[in-house]
Predict the structure.
Amino acid sequence: MEVLAGLPTPLVMGILLGGLYALLALGLSVVFGVMKLVNIAHGDLVILGSYIAFACMTYLGMDPIISLVIGIPALFGIGLFIQQFLMGRAFSLSAEAPLIIAFGIALVIQNTNQIIWTPLSRGLTTPYSLSSFHLGPYQFPVSYLLAFIAAVVVMLALREFLRRTYLGKAINAASEDRVAAQLMGINTKMIYGFAFAIAMISAGIAGVFLGMTFPFTPTSGMQFLIIAFGVVIIGGLGSMLGTFLGGLIFGLVQTLAGFFFGPAIQMLSIYVIVLVILAVRPKGLFGR
Amino acid sequence: MPEETLLKVSNIDVFHGSFQALWDVSLSVKPAEIVAIIGANASGKSTLLNTISGLLHPAKGSIEFEGRNISALDPFQIVTTGISQIPEGRRVFPNMSVLDNLIIGSYNREARSKREQNLGMVYELFPILRERKNQLAKTLSGGEQQMLALGRGLMSDPKLLLLDEMSLGLAPIVINDLYKALREIREKGITILFVEQNVRRSLGEADRAYIMQMGRVVLSGDAAKLREEEEVKKAYFGV
């Protein structure tokens, strides 16, 4: 089997790329799980994270990963603001209102980025992100490896936070039964704000590693939102590990389909799988 | 004792949207009492409890707890004052462990410092919860879930426990255990206000009772005396 000699490359690339996809999807999964909100602004919030890192790089000469010391608090603050002044009120109006507000937020971020950064394609290029590492005879981009490591760290941090801390347990409780959570003394409005802000942090981290891997423009958000959706659907809601595994499956299907059937088929094959999972097991492979 | 009344509900009107669910309802509970609210479906019993716990707010009238007006507070603030509601249908957190359910019960800052002590009390009251502490709540039987809901409510270190339809859908033998636990809880000095549809049982367990009909209190008094009341018999036993 001559053809299988090349197989390790798409396998490893699929897993590494899957890590990046998982990183993209974790924040979406948190907001979906806790607030039952389909946050269609998530992709644009990720790209906002990329631009914040780009600004830190351009004007402060910071390394994009180091720039997270600015990006994380900034996005946490933006998350609290959005929840407090935009989403919080919308939730008491109707189920559709937060969805429309999320759409509005997406458009505002896109257009603001257009004005500030122009529609030109940008990247968070550093010397190390362009280099590659060796695994036997095979070579892989370092930026993919970094994204994968970041995904594992964020996934484990979120998982432990939700499991072990009072605040994390309160977030779980509020997502399972909002009224019962209130009766336990949980301020669910505040909890929603925190959950949204935490999702924003993970979006910001995703933005940095995405920007180191792919070029981005102000309108890239939608493209990555769709990937994140696919990951959440495959992995299932409410489980950080499920979302992570969903990302890996997504990445692997893409690279393996590309390897066996050609690049034109790779995205198609993923979305066929997404549709099959929606039809057969709507709560996702690892959903509760 | 300057404050003889623990909870005082005065002339409240409560609306669900445009529908008026409570009309001029008044009620009072003294420390360490067990008080029952009895009535048929949709008579306003649960609405009354939900208003005391802050899920709903009265349009008119006031609710005082230990002399403090709490009618405008949110549920999470009311828990801190020492009122804990065990909701109808148990509403345990199904995908969280038994222990995590109990820990969440002690979420408010006042209760956190007494967490281990209250956990000990809950385990003593319901030893089965200790045995099952690492199981997901959804794997418990209905009776065990009700014990968990009670235990979770006790973890907030309450002075007043509000119980909504505790025995709904449970086997008589389980109900007996739960009432036995209630008596033990009362002996610890915790006041209990409970809602029931089962009239005989409620009047047997309570010191006093309020009987509600169509969103109004129609009768109240000593439980033993109410049992003899002709009106109750007529209305509820169909005699």
